[in-house]
Write a structure and sequence with these properties.
elongated, four-stranded antiparallel beta sheet, 128 residues, Alpha-Beta Plaits
């Protein structure tokens, strides 16, 4: 698992506002998008970012500036967590799924029988 100096959590109302904040944050600071969660049908969005302490702090300040331009103040919370513990990162950073290895198929020792699918299919329409 990748280690981050800091992670940032931005919680905002409305999916579109969350995407706008993520766009501005990504353009302003060298942070990595870690994950997001949508609640209430996209009316509450949590965005997690990671990077150096200075970059994450700059990103959170950028999200607050985007919020100031909005009339209804959609930003609910924006925090920087420095030196996050490994256990916190397990909840934030999506883990790669482990694929089960396929076992080799055993050879079929039973005699093959003719199935219905082996019969030739007749053409239904010869009107060409």
């Amino acid at each position: 698992m990748k280690k981050y100096e800091a992670i940032g959590v931005i919680e905002t109302k409305y999916f579109a506002v969350g995407m706008e904040m993520l766009d501005q944050v990504s353009k302003t600071a060298a942070v990595e998008f870690l994950s997001s969660q949508n609640q209430l049908g996209g009316k509450l969005v949590s965005i997690m970012i990671g990077g150096s302490i200075s970059d994450v702090t700059l990103a959170i300040e950028t999200a607050k500036q985007v919020n100031e331009r909005k009339t209804d103040s959609p930003l609910k919370n924006a925090v920087v967590i420095t030196n996050p513990h490994e256990e916190i990162l397990r909840f934030v950073v999506p883990q790669p799924k482990q694929v089960a290895k396929k076992r080799p198929a055993k050879p079929n020792t039973a005699k093959s029988t003719k199935k219905q699918e082996d019969k030739p299919i007749e053409e239904e329409n010869n009107n060409e």
